[in-house]
DNA sequence: TTTTGTGCAAAGTATTTGCAGCGAA
DNA sequence: TTCGCTGCAAATACTTTGCACAAAA
């Protein structure tokens, strides 16, 4: 079977771009940290471990390119930085996120929960949906578990 | 009946803050541009028309304060700036947005369409939802209308 | 040789912070 | 007088850009 990186290489070629060593290193970092929601700086530091000559600007340019090709999605959780998430292969839509306001953890929901809602929006607002962003802010199971334990102790 | 600005004043006082002239001017600008999704810079320029002495830093500080008090919600549509939306009084949740990728218009959906989805997330992921952000990117009715007209002409 | 991609440094934006002065309590 | 608030300027943080050079087609 064809590897994920091979398929990304083809996507680049189809759009007339090359998979240069720098781009490959960047993509590999993203593949190795699938659910990490890395910022450009995070990616840069990780890529630098394997390919120390790489420049930060190249990482930014690569991430921008991958965003254009919809290999990754760019997302912003409200701290000042953009984060980059690999899109699941074949996923019609970007996945959802759960951001914990206690511990800062970000969990992913791969299932598409918006089918019905999107139908309503398309019909009622006459809006052709191409993409979406859905993020819930609240308290994750780890933190509410801890709170329960704390209560028990007292 | 008590005015909206009066109620905001009370909210400030309850949290031990004053409604200074600068803060009042800022709030008034927000009230007068309810659906405009203003950036801090936008607010600053509008406030300056009424109160030219005001500084940009004060606007940033005021918007931060209002965000803390949940008078406004801070949102980011993926261009590098934060935008500030007055929260509807009594609204349990932040409203949703439709961002047009053709013309850049941002429309609001005040209805809460996420009730069922939130129930699923709370149950299935054991996550206590406190707030949400939902934005659809696509083509608005104005732009798809124009496209249809363009097609007719040819 | 033409084009594409890269690293570095500089430039841009957006936002935050330090600080001296001001004004209300 | 005290303390919160402000304006200004400087600092910071993130991202983009210009440019000379390198690599690939």
From TrEMBL, chains A, B:
Zn(2+) binds at residues 100, 103, 140, 143. CDD domains: Fur_like (cd07153). Binds 1 Mn(2+) or Fe(2+) ion per subunit. Binds 1 zinc ion per subunit. Its cofactor is Mn(2+); Fe(2+); Zn(2+). One of its GO terms (biological process) is regulation of secondary metabolite biosynthetic process. Belongs to the Fur family. PANTHER family: FERRIC UPTAKE REGULATION PROTEIN, ZINC UPTAKE REGULATION PROTEIN. This is Fur family transcriptional regulator, ferric uptake regulator.
């Amino acid at each position: 079977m064809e590897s994920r990186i091979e398929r990304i290489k083809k996507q680049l070629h189809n759009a007339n771009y090359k998979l240069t060593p720098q781009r490959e290193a960047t993509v590999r970092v993203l593949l190795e940290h699938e659910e990490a929601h890395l910022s450009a700086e995070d990616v840069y530091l990780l890529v630098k471990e394997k390919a120390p000559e790489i420049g930060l600007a190249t990482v930014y340019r690569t991430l921008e390119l991958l965003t254009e090709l919809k290999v990754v999605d760019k997302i912003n959780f409200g701290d000042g930085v953009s984060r980059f998430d690999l899109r699941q292969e074949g996923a019609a839509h970007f996945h959802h996120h759960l951001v914990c306001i206690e511990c800062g953890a970000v969990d992913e929901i791969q299932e598409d929960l918006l089918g019905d809602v999107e139908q309503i929006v398309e019909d009622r607002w006459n809006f052709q949906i191409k993409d979406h962003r859905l993020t819930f802010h609240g308290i994750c199971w780890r933190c509410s578990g801890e709170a329960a334990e704390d209560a028990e102790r007292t």
